[in-house]
Structures are given as structure tokens and as C-alpha cells.
Amino acid sequence: MTGSNGVVKGWDEHDPGVLRLPSGRLVRGRGLRHPLDPAAPTPSYGVYLLGDPPEVPWASRWVRWPDFRLPADRGETRGVLVDAWERSAAERVEIACGGGRGRTGTALACLAVLDGVPPREAVAYVREHYHPRAVETPWQRRYVRRF
């Protein structure tokens, strides 16, 4: 979705799954097992945290990240999340995994850290502003604290 000037419009912060970071950047978290509302805007860029790469019609990055675990390559994941955070200033960025809570919540908490939330507070921030059960495992919480 682009405006009349050709610039990509951002997310509406009231849409389901959209997280407002402290800087005002908006990022959408989503579970891929849940159907996407056909009326909902599509992302201009997506980061998909899965065991296998998804097929999506927009620009995206795939991070090998098994369910309930941590990313296979933490260095690469950090770079992908930094890129997603930078893009979120001007693009509709989506972060997604199968269910939209554990891996997605963990990545959103990492984006919150990049946005200035102290690492020890990032999980609570995402649980308050995205989903109350985001970041499902103790090792995911530890990953955010060390991000």
C-alpha cells in the first residue's frame, strides 16, 4: 500500500499485532498459522522465524529458528533484526513465526532493546504492548536479556 506520493504508508497502530516501539516505530507481529485478513495491509518487508523458509510475495528474510528454541545462527539473527529495526522507520515490517508468540515475541523484544528499552524490561514491554504470553521459554527470555 503506497500513498499518492509513492511512499509506503506504515502500519496502523490499532491493527492486530502491531507493536509501537518507544521511538514510535511500528512493527507487526503475526502467527503464520492464523489466516491473514484479506483487508489487512501487506508488509513491505518480513522476517520469518521458522524451521523452513516461507513463500511470501514481498521482500523477506528467513531465519532458521525451530519452535520453542533459539535461532540457529545468533550472529546472523542479530544482523537481520538490526536491519528490520532500521527498515521499520520507513517500511511496513512484519516479524512472524508459526504461532506468533514465542519466536515472534522474542524477536520483537530484541527490536525493543534496539529501540532503547533496557534488556531486562524488554520482555515485559512486549507482553504489555503486543501479547501477554509473548516470549514463551526461559531461554528465549535469557536471549533477550543478552541481546
The percent range for helix content is 25-40%
Low-confidence stretches: 1-7
- How many β-strand runs? 5
Q: State mean pLDDT (0 to 100 scale).
A: 93
Cα-atom Rg, whole angstroms? 14 Å
Strand order in the sheet with the most strands:
1-2-5-3-4
Shape: globular
- Main β sheet profile: 5 strands, mixed
By oligomeric state, this entry counts as single chain
What sequence of helices (H) and strands (E) makes up the elements?
Answer: EEEEHEHHH
- Total number of helical segments? 4
Helix/strand-derived class?
Answer: alpha/beta
Determine the N-to-C terminus distance. 33 Å
Beta percentage is 15-25%
Can you walk through the features of this model?
By secondary structure, this protein is of the alpha/beta class. 32% of the residues lie in helices and 18% in strands. Strands 1-2-5-3-4 form a 5-stranded mixed sheet, with helices on one face. Strand 1 and strand 2 form a beta hairpin. The protein is globular and about 35 Å long.
For the structure shown, list the relevant keywords.
4 helices; single chain; 5-stranded mixed sheet; globular; alpha/beta; 5 strands
Précis, in short:
This protein has 147 residues and is of the alpha/beta class. The protein has 4 helices and 5 strands.
